[in-house]
Amino acid sequence: MRYEESNKTVIVRGGGDLATGVVQKFHRAGFNVLILEIATPTAIRRSVALCEAIYDGYAKVEDIVCRKVNRIDEILICWQEGEIPLIIDPDGEMVDMVKPAAVIDAILAKRNLGTTISMADVTIALGPGFNAGEDVHAVIETMRGHDLGRMILNGYAKPDTGIPGEIAGESDRRVVRAPSEGIITHKKKIGSIVEQGEVLFTIKNEDTRTTEVNTPFTGLLRGLIREGIKVSKGMKAADIDPRTYIDWRTISDKARCLGGAALEAYYYLNQRKGAGS
Q1: What is the pTM of this model?
Q2: pLDDT by residue (tens digit) across 46-96?
Q3: 263-266 contacts: CB < 8 A, separation 24 or more?
Q4: pLDDT in tens, 110-155
């Protein structure tokens, strides 16, 4: 017997650049999507991360508009306007209030920050830290390569290596990390072509010393953590792409892949449910 879905509400935990790819797929498929975020998200690829609405009240990525809300009635207004509501809710308290058809953990924390299989009829998580079949119904592989986007119904995604996937010959150097703790000040803007050795940003430490952080290779500055954020030593602060021709204002190939994989997993799990398995 064919499963007839009635609830068209989906909660996505996290609003970073990869989560935004998930949000777009479900939004385009006709779902009412609600994003749950922390109070101070630290997205790097801010130009394509809907979590920026936390700071600005509004964010637009490609064809989707996201607004920060504080109450249930504001969520409903956003949906009526065809927009994506985003609310500060790191603990997922809105799940019991909204009772969504699905909860998708797209925080990409490399560990489970509280998502459980009982939160909805369909629960999906992106990346390492979740046991498919126990923590959630399905896990989506996030590591670049042959298995990117693969749906896992039993077990875990590949463990985090801490090394970014290779793009145009660059891997580890693509991610620029803070060499010390302190407050970030920008010297370049997202979307700029940066030359090797140029100063990307500075970090002011508690003892008022300023550390300059330089570009490791010539490329496109695809991501840069929000100015004024206090970073810790080793924290991701910038993202450089050796492909200087790409459009930094659009959702990445990886985010689109993961979004499509999550949407596929949702319909697959619903089909299995309808078949009584």
Answers
A1: 0.93
A2: 999 999 999 999 999 999 999 999 999 999 999 999 999 999 999 999 999
A3: 263/22, 263/25, 263/26, 263/29, 264/151, 265/122, 265/124, 265/137, 265/138, 265/140, 265/151, 266/10, 266/26, 266/102, 266/104, 266/122, 266/124
A4: 999 999 999 999 999 999 999 999 999 999 999 999 999 999 999 9
Residue-wise pLDDT tens digits, 165-216? 888 888 889 999 999 999 999 999 999 999 999 999 999 988 888 999 999 9
Give the residue with greater pLDDT, 17 vs 273: 17
Identify the CA nearest to 243 among candidates 235, 234, 253. Answer: 253
How many Å apart are CA 248 and CA 224, to the nearest integer?
12
- Residue showing tokens 């923590």: 135
Domain ranges of the chain: 9-161+252-274, 172-241
Q: Give the chain's count of helices (H) and strands (E).
A: 5, 17
Q: 9-161+252-274 sits in which CATH class?
A: alpha beta
Q: Would you tell me which CATH number, out of the four given (2.40.50.100, 2.60.120.10, 2.40.160.20, 3.40.50.150), belongs to the domain 172-241? A: 2.40.50.100
Residue 13's pLDDT band (boundaries 50, 70, 90)?
A: very high
Q: What is the DSSP letter of 255?
A: H
| 7 in Cβ contact with 86 (< 8 Å) | no
Continuous segment of H or E residues that includes residue 9: strand 9-13
